[in-house]
Amino acid sequence: MKRRDFLKSGIALAAITTLNPWTSLFGKEKKLNDELRRSDFGADFLWGVATAAYQIEGAYQEDGKGLSIWDTFSNTKGKIKTGENGNIATDFYHLYEQDIALLKQMNIPNFRFSIAWSRVLPKGVGEVNKKGLEFYHKVIDACLERGIEPWITLYHWDLPQALEDKGGWINREVIQWFKEYVTLCIREFKGKVKNWMIMNEPTAFTALGYMLGIHAPGKKGIDKFLKASHHTALALAEGGRTIRELFPQANIGSTFSCSYIEPLKPKNKHQKAAARIEAVMNKFFLEAVLGRGYPIQDFPALKRIKKFMLPGDEDKLKFDLDFVGLQNYTREVVKYSLFRPVIWANQVKPQKRGVETTEMGWEVYPESVYQMLKIYASYPEIPKIIITESGASFPDKLEDSKIHDEKRKKYLQDVLKQVLRAKKEGVPVQGYFIWTFTDNFEWAEGFRPRFGLVYVDFQSQKRYIKDSGKWFAEFLSK
Ligand code: GCO
Predict the structure, then answer these.
(1) By three-state DSSP, how is residue 142 classified?
(2) Which residues are catalytic, by number?
(3) Which pTM was predicted?
(4) Nearest CA to ligand 1 atom 1
(5) For the segment 25-39, what is each residue's pLDDT rounded down to a tens digit?
């Protein structure tokens, strides 16, 4: 049955059940075809929204904050597609109280945000900026006063520029620098915050920032990427050990980007191409922290990373996370390609496949999250999965102070059905955070792609809850 017919038959069934005295018999079917319910996921399931400091805070030079690589990058001509920058972003630095009140109004019980390293340590190491720490205390307190649980990401891509000037992730000393920063944050906030994520999507920031040069700091080259990646993987595990040592009761995770990857056709050359892409996109950092090493078997060219490894490093890559943060937006279809050396693989763009896409050009494919949950669940080392990001950008139109974002609402509902499907099959998925709370600065894309449940007029900084946000608030209220 086609999807649309399936929905139609659901409506018919629902109509019958309201007339029929045997309603309870139909209860199950009705539920399947009807709206989702929060209770379907169980009382302990975590619900939240996710954000990142650079994308929302603004105040990029206020109260002693040092510059980060994203401040430099977005203020460099030609780096951001729209010519915009994140200097003001959604001005969360000044509007946090109002935004957190809005979270409460929308019944959102968990709030994921990140700390800007250069706000608390302007030079990355050394002198501490008290005002920076104060700001995060205020944000945390504003959450706790309203019964909202804070979830903090320590590194969401905004490396202090002062550290980049010394080589950034390419300099092995970064492991020590990161440890110093983690130590400061944990000591400062452990009395108030239990949930910590060490890093956000290491694959994305190393590949986009150190291989392709399209994100900060704009560096290019395979060796730069591999070196930065190895140091990132070591810093991730070292960060985890540091938190554990200072705060044994902490709930420690890290977040990973992943896309369900399928070969164009079931032919050996395409399957092998898909495996190489999967090794880089999905497995690299995840398998390293799980103690499996780098996925060199799937992609032999990755063995070049060994050049940057010292004796003992293999063991240092492992850390036992309490939860793995799964972040999924789409799937990729991959084929063998003669024209892309080293990886010998190419993505078959959704536009070529004639499928529906989001404003980011990503295929709308909610089942990807189900497939990825099943894949994560097949690693015995993963104790618990939390979806720490999931969402979609579609063009939004503000009309009469309203935004009828049907596509986003449907996308989120379809994804949640897939999450529930996996959960019912025994996948240990225990939470779902929507990317994102308010529209914000979408990195090199500028402000154009809007992912929020809440619309932001970037001129006036006024917020309007979109229909998707109203639906989520209502869903959470039951
Ligand atoms: C990422 C980041 C977010 C993005 C989101 C939409 O995954 O890239 O965590 O900062 O804004 O994914 O692209």
Answers:
(1) helix
(2) 201, 389
(3) 0.92
(4) 201
(5) 444 444 444 589 999
